[in-house]
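In keeping with the milestone schedule agreed at the kick-off meeting, the structural modelling team has produced records for the first pair of proteins. Each record is given below as a sequence line and a structure-token line. The laboratory manager (R.T.) confirmed that both were archived under the project's standard naming scheme.
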Amino acid sequence: MTKLLKREGVQGFLYILPSLILILVFSVIPIFMSLFFSFTKYNVLQSPVLVGLANYERIFKDKFIFAAIQNTLAYVILTVPVQTILSLLFASVIAEFFRNRFGYFVKSVVFIPVIASAVLIGTVWFTILSPRGVLNTMLNVIGLKSVNWLGSKSTALLSIAIISIWKNVGYFLVIYYAGIMDIPDSIFEAAKVDGANSVQKFLHITIPSLANVNYLVITLGTIWSFQVFDLVHTMTGGGPGTSTSTLVLSIYNAAFKEYNMGYATAIAMLMLLIMMLISYLEKKILTKGEREL
């Protein structure tokens, strides 16, 4: 019996070994390497020189990093709730009323922006939102003034957030739709017999049954929002001023414009710490009701 258990243990370990190697090589080891480089002065061309906490001290004195943190948090607050709610509502409507070819067509169309290149999307929307672009032309036709969507501090970050929501909704819609399809039909039928309407079924059956899916969608959405780079780099470059500067853009600028890899990895470690803290809080909040049940 002991030999059999040992054999099964070895077989199980060999089964997960390829994935374990990939995770170690591409995830775990790079994190520790980044942590090491964050305590160094390193420009890639020369050997790294240990500088202690100098890079972290610079972060707390760098007003551009504080602006990037504020913008990133604002971006997360703008995008995550809206794209979560929209994708849940769209998935519920399709599951309730359009379990047919039209529903499949809608899901396919909404999913197209997900698989499109963010750089391509940014370029297209930059053209649409330019001072003489399609959107301002339509506003002029109905008698409204043009808006400098990407050139104004009050609208630039909001514009990018809206585009990001438009791009991501299709992905989370598919996840929610799969979660809704996993809820037994008998529960909905019993609620219908009891006189529950669509709204009541949505509030009292669909949402509580999707607790795990909600946690997944919100966590993924938060991580994606923290990683925003392509749209910002393509459409505004962080401007006007620092109004759309983000943490990832700051990492890019430090690494590939200043060639200061040590400082760039220090910013990356700070971003990782913030993301871990927010993910922990989300888990505590979103799984609280599940634990109580």
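The second protein of the pair:
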Amino acid sequence: MIVGMGRREEKKAQTRARLLDAAAAVFARKGLVAASLDEVAEEAGLTKGAVYSNFAGKDDLIDALLKERLDKPLGEIAAKVDPDAPVPEQAAQAEALFRAVWDRERDMFLLGLEFSIHRARNPDSVPMYRGDRDLQDAMAALMEQQAKERGLTLPLPATELAAGLFALGSGLDLMALNDPERVPEGLFAKFLTLIMGQATPA
């Protein structure tokens, strides 16, 4: 009985993975608005019923896709940065790691931007995407922890700093997509170093 349940769970996980891969391909080709669940099912070689057995709808599918392809790798960046390195070096490490994700998942960043606009236009019908908020909370907690360990006072509350840095990063990402020459490599790291350099002894 347990073996059978394990196989069913494994098959369900495989189906879900196929659907996410298919969704990534379809959304990359057509964008959020034009892509349909029928196309996702066809891309995956599955029925539309398989889509609805794994996801509540298009918004739920996008939410799951962004969590897997963006939130997970972005959430791992902080743990890969050397906590004992000087702030400029930490900033450079963080930006390099972020850039690697950005280069690999460019289409997912575009989808995330589309989804943000989609929700802004339909706030009552589209569920809140919590991915950015969770990442901001994690960044705020890390900044508070490092400031405490170094005996520093942050120039603003950690939650406000994290929100501002995410907004800055999103703006630079959008600019880099449209006019990459205006966003030289290392620019975000310079801003991060400048902002964190305002921390004072506690």
